[in-house]
Structure formats: C-alpha cells, structure tokens
Amino acid sequence: MTKTAPAPPNVPSAAAAQRVLVLDFGSQYAQLIARRVREQNVYCEIVRHDITAERLKELDPIGIILSGGPNSVYEPDAPQCDAKLFELGIPVLGICYGMQLVCQALGGKVDNTPSREYGRAECEVTDAGDLFANVAAQTQVWMSHGDQVAGIAEDFLPMARTSTCPYAAIKHRQLPIYGLQFHPEVTHTPEGATVLGNFLNSVCGANGTWKLGDFAEETIARIRQQVGDDRVICGLSGGVDSAVVAAILAEAIGEQLSCILVDNGLLRLDEERAVVEEFSDHFKTDLHVVKAEDRFLDVLDGVTDPQEKRRRIGHTFIECFASEAQKIEGAKYLAQGTLYPDVIESGAAPDGPADTIKLHHNVGGLPEELGFDLIEPLRDLFKDEVRRLGLQLGLPEEIVWRHPFPGPGLAVRCLGEVTKGRLDTLRAADAIVVGEIKAAGLYRATSQSFAVLLPIQSVGVMGDSRTYEDTIAVRSVNTDDFMTADWSHLPYELLARISTRIINEVQGVNRVVYDISSKPPATIEWE
Ligand code: XMP
C-alpha cells in the first residue's frame, strides 16, 4: 500500500509558532485569503468551517479568519462554526458571511431582505484606528453579498460604511473580534492588503518571518533525513510542478533520485527533447525516458469519447510508469507534485473542508498498489509560490513560466479520433500559436494558450481550387486559479498572423477560428 510517509507537517519551524487559520465556509475566495496572508509573510492554512474550538486551541493559531460563503446564515443547512471559538481569546476576522456569523453568534442582526450588492463601492472609514490605520478616509472596496448586517450588538462598534451598507466594518469593544462586509482579499479592494496587514500585525501580533526560502531549506533538510540512503522516484511531465519537485529532491539527495518521463506521443512539438535537455542541464540524476507513443496510439485507436480517452490514457500511463519504476532497484519513495489546492479540494487535508469542488483528477496521479511511500514536498504551496520556489532553486524561467498542460495531453485537444497524422497537424498549429504569442511578448500575460484540432472540415479556396480541410481553434485564456477564466483579448494583428501562418504552413488546414468563451460556462480545454 502506498501511504504518505510519516513526515512531520510541512510547516517550517518559524511558522509552526505563528500561523493563521482560515475557516472555509465555501467561499470562492478562501484560497485567495490564505495567499494574501502568506504574501504578508505569515504562514496560513485553510481548515474546515466546523473545526471544534478545542482543536483550534491545540493548533494554537495567532489569528482566525472566517471566510465568506454563498449561504445565508438563516438557511437551515447554513454552515456554522463552533461558537466557543469566540471565547478562546484568539483574534477573529469575519469576512462577509464570516462577519454575519460573528453577528449572529454575538447578538447582532443580519438582514436578509433583498439587498444584494455586487461590485465596487465607496467606503467611508469612520474609525481610523485598528484595521484602518494608514487607509484613506474614503476608500474603494469590493462587495459581493446578499444578506448584510443591519444592527450590531451593544458590544460592537461600527468602523466603516457605504451608502447602502451601514456596517461595512465592525469591531468588538473589548475582544479582538472584527468583521468586514467587503472583501479585503481581492484586488478590487486596493487597500485590502493594508487592512489585512493591520489585522495580522497589530491585532494578531504577527512577526512576518515566514519565507519561501526557509521553506525550501527546511523541506530539503527534512527530505534528507526522511529518505536516508534510500532511492526516490519522481515522474517528470515537463510541467513546473514536477520540475520543482525534482529540483528540491536533486538538491536534497542528488544521485539517489531517479526520474521517469513517459513519452506518450501526446506531448507538444519537441517537448520530450526539451524536457530531456533542460533536465540534463540542471540535474545530474538518473533519467529514464519511456518511449510509449505506439502503445498510447494503439489504445486510443477509434476512441472519440473524451472520458474514455482520459480513462485509457490514465491506465496506460500507470502501466508504463509502474513497469519502469519496478526496474529501478532500491526505490522506496515516490515524489509527487501535489499542490495545496489539490489537497484542500480533495478534502484530504487534516481539518480540510470535506466537500468542495473537485479538481481534475490528474492523470499523473499514481495508484496505491505501486507500493511506494509518498513524498509531496509542495503539499503546502500554491501555484505562484511553486513558481517562486522554482526560480529560487535556479530553474530557468522557461520551465517556471510554462503554461499548464493537461495530463492526457494533446488527446483532449484533438477532438474526434486521435491519430499520429492528426496529432502532427495539431502540434504544428500549436507551435505557431505559442510561438507567435511569445514573439508578441504576451506569453506571460496569458495563462494558457494553445491550438485545438476540430473534428469538422469545411470548404475553402486555395489558388483556383476548392479545398475541403480541417479547422483549428485557437484558445487563449487569462485566469488566476483556472477555476474561472476569461478569454484573452489578443490584438487582432496577432490573431491575423497566427491565422495566416497556420493556414499557409500547416498542411490540411484551411480555416482558423478564435474561441471567445469564458469559463464558466465553457471549460478551458475543449474535452
Ligand atoms: P478545464 O478544461 O476544466 O481545465 O477548464 C482547467 C485546467 O486543468 C487542466 N486540465 C487537466 N490537467 N489532467 C490535468 O493534469 C487533466 O485531466 C486535465 N484536464 C484539464 C487544463 O489544462 C486547465 O489548466
């Protein structure tokens, strides 16, 4: 059975003394709150909303943040917190729904008559101390709520208001308990970082000493101690997460690391060569490349259903990986690039929310039967932190800023049948899309850009002849978290260049279209 190795929690010792906990009431912003706290060099974790006061006491945070959430506190199944947490003496900041819970628990009045407010609002600060130190008297805030607090208990004081919200911010007279109706964590609240910083520094007494650099050093030391003389296997995909895991392990255990890259024939143009080159430039460890293109094409033969494609690719990947791994003598551990959002979204975190939205199952996820102990050095990090760590560990920008690529690879961008010929068409078009976006200096400004080969042909004219050929869709999105995304507003000239080049240079394509759908309701990938 694979089990997570009994390592101490991935919390650096400095942070172990000081951490902030975010109670997740189902807000789309809970992760963003945690990131904003970490950006102030304070370690922060997300926990279930119904964590008990006793458990909180054990975890001993310097502050507790109650996140927003989609519910009304009056709904019968509305998520609640253990009201005893307000008696612990630990500073509490309730945001939006979190503030309404504070009021409900401590005697205020929440109004659920229709008062929906969504968007920017001008906020007048009436109490310039505390949370609003160094914040302008008139400041812009971002509101996103149905209910709002309509009356506060004797023990509370108002701190700020908007034209429609009399209690945009409140504080308890004696206890370190605060509430904000607006969202300080989003960039649309320009002084939100100052407000959060005031809560962390002045109210919670944070020393702001948590650093990614310490994280790397301590993680490396811990892995060294944990692994001893054993061998560790790490799967490489060409993506940033597995590259950073490999970099940490190479630093920690050097020659005891073996990496496996499965070339499934579904990679982008020249990707296998690039990974091998980058890898050999940066690490002097044992690299195994499994050439499995034919095997993958065989199992995909005739398959057009997207879920079936994923299933077959997943199985074949595991088989290829496992048979290579078994050849590596003395391997005891398997390193994986699991990130913090994967952990909390799968509900696997201790005290993590149980049933939030499930992310894509990663095709790289390996089954328990392989019999290795898991090492997951990035379990406590967000994607942007992984990128920063990669740069600190000396990985080149090209790897660190590479756009994400799905585990099932080009198969889910090759709509309809997956054949070598169709994949080659797609690879050539994709290289033009990415190359032109890079040449226009827009690669970093977009989050994910690629080509999709559609399963339809259409009529065209080339020279004097009629053509009946394939269509390429260009997809480029901007997103922070890949859960929601907007299509990139690329310049027309750039789109024109991409279109002309694809039609001129990629044989068999006579039409290029640009995908202008946002997520939701569309997804980023087409399958
Ligand atoms: P969607 O298409 O759901 O994609 O909007 C969101 C992000 O997830 C990536 N993606 C995957 N990644 N295995 C992965 O490792 C998968 O099966 C998978 N499907 C989608 C997608 O590229 C985007 O970044």
Automatic annotation (TrEMBL):
Entry EC number(s): 6.3.5.2
A molecular function (GO) term: asparagine synthase (glutamine-hydrolyzing) activity
Binding site for ATP: S237, G238, G239, V240, D241, S242, A243
Keyword presence, Magnesium: no
InterPro entries: Asn_synthase (IPR001962), Class_I_gatase-like (IPR029062), GATASE (IPR017926), GMP_synth_C (IPR001674), GMP_synth_GATase (IPR004739), GMP_synthase (IPR022955), GMPS_ATP_PPase_dom (IPR025777), Rossmann-like_a/b/a_fold (IPR014729)
Known catalytic reactions: XMP + L-glutamine + ATP + H2O = GMP + L-glutamate + AMP + diphosphate + 2 H(+)
Function of the protein: Catalyzes the synthesis of GMP from XMP.
Assembly description: Homodimer.
UniProt-recorded name of the protein: GMP synthase [glutamine-hydrolyzing]
Source organism of the structure: Adhaeretor mobilis
